[in-house]
Amino acid sequence: MKKFGQIYRKKINEHLNGVPHAHPHPTMNYNDYEGRMAKQNLYKLHKYSKDLFEMLDDHVELESWVQSKITKAADYISSVKHYLEYEMEFGPEKNPYHSNFDDDDIEENVHHINDLLPILKKIRKVQESHKISLGDKVQVIIKPNDAENLLETYYKLNEENKKTFSLKLFESKKSFWEMVSYSHSRG
Questions:
Q1: How many CA atoms lie within 13 A of 151 on its CB side?
Q2: Distance CA 89, CA 179 (A)
Q3: Quick one: how far is CA 6 from the chain centroid?
Q4: Distance (Å, rounded) from C-alpha 181 to C-alpha 168?
Q5: Which segments within 122-178 are labelled E, that is strand?
Q6: Other C-beta atoms within 10 Å of 111: how many?
Q7: Distance from the Cα of residue 130 to its chain's centroid
Q8: If we measure between CA atoms, which residue out of 171, 154, 184, 173 comes closest to residue 79?
Q9: Which residues is 130 bridged to in the sheet?
Q10: How many Å apart are CA 174 and CA 169, to the nearest integer?
Q11: What is the CA radius of gyration of the chain?
Q12: What is the per-residue pLDDT across 118-146, written as a single tens digit (0 to 9) for each?
C-alpha cells in the first residue's frame, strides 16, 4: 500500500510538470488572491493531517473534543470539495448551493420553532428546496434532506435540548447551518 507522502509527492509532481490531472482549474473572473490563500490553508491542513495520521495508531483512545474537531474538519472539507467539484463540472447556473429563488419565494413569519416545523414537514413531503427567512435578517435555503435531518433530530431531543436547538436555529445563519450539520451527524 502506498504511503500518504508518496501519493502527495506524485500529485505535486504531476501538477508542477503540467501532467493533466483529474480536476482542471476553473476560469474565474477575480483579480484577487483567494485561490492562493485557500491553497496555503489547504497545504497547512494537509501537512497537519499527515502528521496526525502518522501519530495515531488504530487503537488510540482520543478525548471526545479531539474526535469532534477531526470530524468537523473532515465534514467541512468534504462540503467544500463537493461544492467545488459540482461547480467545476456544471457551473454556477446548475449548482444547488446558489439561490434560484426570488424574494417572492421566501416563506415569511418564521420567528419560532413552531412556525418552522410545519415548513420543514412541507419541504420533506414535496421534496423541494425552500428559501425561508429566519427572524428578520437570516435567509436560508433548506433542502429536503436538511429538513428531514432537522425534524428527526428535533423530535429525538429532550425538552431542555429542544429549547437550545430551537434558539440556535434562529440565532444566525452560521448557527443555523451548525445545527443542520449537527443534525446530519446524528442521522
A1: 18
A2: 29
A3: 29
A4: 12
A5: 130-134, 138-142
A6: 13
A7: 18
A8: 184
A9: 142
A10: 9
A11: 20
A12: 888 988 898 888 888 877 667 778 888 88
Contact by Cβ (8 Å): 129, 143: yes
In the predicted model, is pLDDT for residue 1 greater than 50? no
| Half-sphere exposure (Cβ direction) of 59: Cα atoms closer than 13 Å | 0
Cβ(4)–Cβ(47) below 8 Å: no
Nearest-angstrom CA–CA distance, 123 and 130: 7
At residue 186, φ and ψ (nearest 5 deg) are -85, -20
Give me the residue label for grid cell 451527524.
185
* Cα gap 35→84, rounded to integer Å: 12
**What is residue 149's three-state secondary structure?**
helix
Nearest 10 degrees: CA dihedral of 60, 63, 69, 72? Answer: 80
Strands (E), 20-165: 107-110, 130-134, 138-142
170 neighbors 135 (Cβ within 8 angstroms): yes
Q: What are the residues facing 142 on neighbouring strands?
A: 130
Q: Which three cell numbers stand for residue 161?
A: 435540548
CB 64 within 8 A of CB 26: no
Whether the per-residue pLDDT at 109 is higher than 80: the answer is no
